[in-house]
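quick one before i forget lol
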Amino acid sequence: MRGRIFVTGIGIISAIGKNAGETLESLRNSRSGVGPITQLDTIYKAELPVAEVRLSNKELAEMTGVAEYQLTTRTTLLGLIAARETARHAGLDPSEKQFLTGIVSATTIGGMDKTEINFKNFEKGWPYNHFIFTHDCSDSTEKIADYLGIRDYLTTISTACSSSANAVIHGAQLIRHGIVDRVLAGGTDPLSKFTLNGFHALLILDKNPCKPFDRDRMGLNLGEGAAYLVLESERSASGKKVLCELKGYGNANDAYHQTGSSPEGLGPYLSMKEALEMSGLGPKAIDYINAHGTGTDNNDLAEGIAIEKIFAPHIPPVSSTKPLTGHTLGAAGAVEAVISIMALTQGMVFPNLNFRTRIPELSFEPVKELTETKKVRNVMSNSFGFGGNDSTLIFSAC
């Protein structure tokens, strides 16, 4: 079954805003969320900047109405806030009998933010052993589904940093195969000691605000957040205000290395090529690329080489928005999809903050200043994960 897929709602919470309105305002003003650690209890508080949602779990719970916030993971709390905004924006009512509604939610952390604090006390019984059951990645998906009343289909995806882009792809496939009519798709991930320590051990965390696509890049800044889209079939979107169309998508895996991209950018090249072919658009039709752009030595060069293979000599405006939001891991694909849709609907190309010097091996530089233009009709969003799991989404104006 081949049909058009429309986006009818978006929602987001990250270091640059508790909702879509605040996020757009931060993007307009190039207001970064990267700064000192305030919420996470870690020995690296004075050493490593991150992009936190600067609210406690209690404050997040108050936003959602969750009573027992001590028993609820930060993963779930962030996801509930973004998912609720998305559903309201789309006017999503899962109780409508004429349409089947699904949820595809992504996370890499799962409930780790709670279990890493409580695991030494599991044998003491309640409430500590409760967190054994919330550790599973599906816990947040199930709680979001219950919160919104979604019953027809639910699943969880965890493919590293491409997780929530793959959630969007899977959601679109469900609609195209007639399994559901509409899907809440995206992801949620909090900061945790495990990921902070793990990325620090890989020597890819910058001790200053990150600078993707810069010759002197030193690594990434971790972030946290959640974002979702409502995808709908032509039938269920009929009569609704549509934000844009999911025109194409691609997923590829070069399986080059457990944590690094292939030097020639094979995986990114294949995912972008597949997305373009599905969309029916030529390279010249892409008006903006929201790059994966982590700020690491390996990723930025590999992604840049892949972009040049497809788009040179006419490379569209390119930027990474991770200097604003940090790298939100399993939520990154959805966070950047929402930002890409904002670029499309607002006629804006967002800047690549902190850039100074072009990478010598590349022929292009990222966008350095906010650009307002009516020519943003097709936006490409890249999300690349460990193990070479690479995904690309293309959103188009309707």
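fyi The two ends are 21 Å apart (CA to CA).
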